[in-house]
Amino acid sequence: MKLWSGLAWRTTVASLLLGVLATLAASYFSVRKVVAESTRFSARFFTEAMLMTHGEACRAAPGGWTYTSPTGLTVVAFDAARVLGSPGAGTSGAGPDPALVARMAQGEQEPVSLHFPLFDGSAWGGKLLTRVAAAGPCSLLEYRWPRMTNRLSELRWMLLAAVAFTALASALSMAAVITPLLRRLRRLHGAAGGLGSPGYASPADTIADELGDLSRGLDATHARVLSDAARIEAQKHALERFLSNVAHDLKTPIASLQLALELATTAPSQALPELLVRGIEDTVYLTALVDNLRLACQLGEDVDPLEGEPRAELGMIVERVVRRLGLLARRKALSVESSHPDAELWVRCHPTMLEQAVGNLVHNAITHGDPGGHVVALLEPVGTERFRLTVLDDGPGLPPEGLGRLGERLFRAPEARHRDPRGSGLGVAIVRELCRRAGLTLTFSANAPRGLQVIIEGPRAAPPAEAMAARAAGCPPPLPRTTG
């Protein structure tokens, strides 16, 4: 298996190498330490026994004294005052080991030197230097012992046994640690392959470690993918329904406009005004529908109406909307009027989007108004920091249960559909969404004694720099602020 041949094999080899190196290093340093300490301990007893037996002979030989035991241990006597008192003395081939002399001169009591035949070519297995008196021919003793081949063989077998034990321990630790880890990784791998599909099988890893966290993360991601998929599917169906409604809304005014134009080419002159009114109504409706579709797409793409700190002069926007829809209102025997203060009233919002929202409200009031009725757009300041835009009509209005749902996408009251089958509630829904993103409040209420009242309220904004510069340059005053 790929995981086994890769991760497990590399982990096993690495643990074996590290275990063997650690065993060899620990054995080497521990053997040296144990041998050195045991040699010092044994030398003290041997020195006492040797001086009791051969002390007179050693002190009576000023030229040097040497003793070799039956086991090959050699003891050589030196004068400590001569060797340690004169630098370089006794460093010839017949003198003590210079390295041991130097270590003793630095304060070490019984320096020991161990020789391993695998690392150096010394004929001795080791040397030890001990001082038994301040001066005299037998005051400094050097012990030299031969290499012990049988002991080295035993040590070699001990090292091999330690290496074998380390390898076995590494294999067992790999089996105890790596194998369960690989099993958990295989479960995670299988779960990741089914992420987001109906056949997803949770790893169900409850261990509180990194892999457990990854398992819980996969479960959370799977749930989020399913949720997003369900949301996207719902949006898809909603979009299909929306496009179907828009196609229906476009079909009716286009057919009506085509019929009005065909009749206008053959109708007598007295029938032309009525046909022109129908054509104007359908043209205005199509223009508003196309603009609303464009704005709905922008809002759907999360276009921010406040991006770039835009400014819109709301009084001029109301004036343009009323002037643009005035002809439609007159053709339907309605009067549409606006009122706004003489001073400029700036709002923080994208101008085109805000004008489309105001146009939707006024157009909606004209569309559902009765002949001879009135539509009013009233803009007024509220204190020094806020504004209120009110759109009033005296049409049939809506029942209380319909007022609460105004602004919902694709919602139209049954009475409104009966009066005008065109439309899907897109215009009012756009107004609500734009107000929400621009930080404005939108409220619907009944207009006593009949009709509908729509109020947009929010904070005022400082005029843009170019408007203040034009005012400072003495530009002509704005147009009159009341239009009917």
Automatic annotation (TrEMBL):
GO MF terms listed in the record are: kinase activity
E.C. code: 2.7.13.3
Q: Which residues form the Histidine kinase domain?
A: 245-462
Q: Does the keyword Coiled coil apply?
A: no
| SMART domains recorded | HATPase_c, HisKA
- List the InterPro entries: HATPase_C_sf, HATPase_dom, His_kinase_dom, HisK_dim/P_dom, HisK_dim/P_sf, TCS_sensor_his_kinase
TM ranges are: 157-178
User: What keywords are assigned to this protein?
Assistant: Kinase, Membrane, Phosphoprotein, Transferase, Transmembrane, Transmembrane helix
Q: Which reaction does it catalyse?
A: ATP + protein L-histidine = ADP + protein N-phospho-L-histidine
- What name appears for this protein in its UniProt entry? histidine kinase
